[in-house]
Amino acid sequence: MSSCTALTLDRRRPLARALLAAWDVAGVVAISACLLTAMATPALAYVDPSVMTYTIQALAAVAVALSAVLGVASTRPGRPRPTPRRGRRSLPLVASCAAAPSRATQACLGDAA
């Protein structure tokens, strides 16, 4: 083997050891879970169906609240979006009266004699 190949194998060994250790831990956890569920004793308790309806309602309320919070949090705070302009934009009444006062606008504002 060349020195380059030996160097890459040395770099892979810690990763391989970590993966092997993680695999061992996962195996122990899986076997322990199987043994604990196999040896569990039944509770022999009665659960009223109305308890499940309350549980479902509580879970639905949590889901609605979380979706509302995420919807508000996902909107970007800042300037409000400008409304799209359609057609020709007219000037406000006060600005048009001040720019070119006519008899009709003076009568409208009450300045006519």
Draw up the topology in text:
Blueprint (H helix, E strand, L loop, with lengths): L2 H36 L10 H26 L18 H7 L3 H7 L4
Number of strands: 0
Number of contiguous helices: 4
- One letter per element, helices H and strands E, the order comes to HHHH
Computed Rg: 38 Å
Q: Give the rounded overall mean pLDDT.
A: 75
Low-confidence stretches: none
Biggest sheet character: none
Oligomer: single chain
Distance between the termini: 110 Å
Shape assignment: elongated
Q: Give the amount of beta strand, in percent.
A: under 5%
Structural class: mainly alpha
| Percent helix | 55-70%
Using brief descriptors, characterize the structure shown.
4 helices; 113 residues; 67% helix; elongated
Task: Describe this structure in a few short sentences.
By secondary structure, this protein is mostly helical. The chain is 67% helix and 0% strand. The mean pLDDT is 75.
Written overview of the protein:
This protein is mainly alpha-helical. It is 67% helix and 0% strand.
